[in-house]
Structures are given as structure tokens and as C-alpha cells.
Amino acid sequence: MCKVTVYEKFRLGYSWTDNQDADFDERLKVSSSDMPDAEKIRWGKARQAQRRGPTIRDRYEAAIADETVDPLTRSLLRWFADVEADSGARLRAIYDRIETQAG
Fold first, then answer.
1. What is the pLDDT of residue 57?
2. pLDDT tens for each residue of 32-85
3. Signed CA dihedral, 85, 87, 88, 90: sign only
């Protein structure tokens, strides 16, 4: 099987997948509002639960499993997936602490 780099895929005519965020304006409005942080967190969690489609982790896993992607790029994608998971865990812990303190 032929291995190609991400650069070669773009050069060969593949394109970026643009994932539109229909909630962007509303998220920006809530984030910049005077709403208490705990309420912003709850609002964000509720919105997150309503999302459909593959998660970021799912997208990374699909790319990592794609054997047409060169090994170095697949390794980098594994690192990105691990960093994303670690960041998410830390953020969830902070959010939980804020919600607990708010009651």
C-alpha cells in the first residue's frame, strides 16, 4: 500500500473539512455575558450533550487508523489525541469544582 503524507494528500486535491459551528454566535454571547461562570458551564455542557456527529477523538482515531497516512503523521495525531484527552480531563475537573462551589 502506498503511504502518503498529509502534505501530499492536499497537493493531490484533498481538501480540509470545514465544520461549521452553528452555535458560535450564541456561545460567544453567553461567554461574554454577565452570567455566572457556573451557569455558563451548565449551559455549555447542555449544548455539548446535544451535538451530533463524530467527536474530536473520533476524528483523530479515524485518521490514526488510516494506513494511507504516513507513520510519522499518525504518531503526531496520537499525540494530539492524548493532549486533547488530557486537556479535556483537566477542564472537566475545574468545571466540576466551580459547579460544586456554586452549589
1. 86
2. 999 999 999 999 999 988 888 888 888 889 989 988 888 998 999 999 999 999
3. positive
pTM above 0.85, yes or no: no
State phi, psi for 4 to the nearest 5 degrees.
-130, 150
Q: For residue 5, what are the contacts with CB-CB under 8 A and spacing of at least 6?
A: 69, 70, 73
Task: Please say whether the beta carbons of 53 and 59 come within 8 A.
Answer: no
Provide the 3-class DSSP secondary structure of residue 69.
strand
C-alpha grid cell, residue 72? 510519522
Give the chain's length. Answer: 103
The C-alpha atoms of residue 103 and residue 61 are separated, in whole angstroms, by 37
